[in-house]
Design brief:
The chain has 188 residues and is of the alpha+beta class. It has one domain. It is 47% helix and 10% strand. The two termini are 27 Å apart. Zinc ion binds next to helix 2 and helix 3.
Length: 188
């Protein structure tokens, strides 16, 4: 039996709101089929839909459930465009792929916390490039709009965007990147 984890990797701070969900409550989207995802120990990750919280915010959370199984909770996904739902899935999956879920959660907004988020964003956009490249521009737009509307300062939004764009334009495959992160954490 595994220890129950007390530090979920929640990405609510990276909350996603589509522009349309602000204008009309009925602007709902269909929810995409989850991508394939397994963690750094080869365990399959289960995607579970949840609604509630603040109704119009789509967000994800990577965690282990009470039985110790790796899971991703998908919250209010129908408020986000399908391409953006996929980006959130890839981002949360990345937290499992590089082992963040099983590490102590770094203090909020610490350098390490921001680094973990940058890593997850990087893996996510590389998977977009590999599996759904046509949605890249729309995802950038949605990400920028969402962060601005949720109230992030322009500096945070700009640095997140430039990280994502840099990864997309300059990095190798998601698999290579993940391997590099795992080797780095072994070396620490
Ligand atoms: Zn995250």
């Amino acid at each position: 039996m595994r220890l129950q984890r007390t530090y979920p990797v929640a990405c609510l701070s990276l909350a996603i709101i589509t522009s349309s969900s602000f204008a009309t409550a009925e602007a709902m989207h269909s929810v995409v089929t989850p991508p394939s995802c397994s963690n750094n120990q080869g365990e399959p990750v289960l995607f579970i839909s949840r609604s509630g919280l603040q109704g119009q915010v789509a967000a994800g959370m990577a965690n282990r459930d009470t039985d110790g199984n790796p899971v991703i909770y998908r919250m209010n996904y129908d408020t986000a465009a399908p391409a953006f739902q996929r980006f959130i899935d890839f981002h949360e999956c990345a937290h499992h792929q590089v082992g963040h879920v099983d590490q102590p959660h770094p203090p909020r907004n610490s350098f390490e916390h921001l680094m973990n988020e940058s890593i997850a964003d990087c893996v996510a956009i590389l998977r977009v490039r590999e599996e759904a490249n046509e949605s890249y521009a729309a995802i950038l737009d949605d990400l920028k709009t969402a962060m601005t509307r949720v109230g992030f300062p322009k500096s945070s939004t700009d640095s997140r965007m430039s990280n994502v764009i840099n990864c997309y334009e300059n990095y190798g495959s998601s698999a290579e990147f993940i391997e590099g992160v795992l080797n780095q954490s072994k070396a620490d």
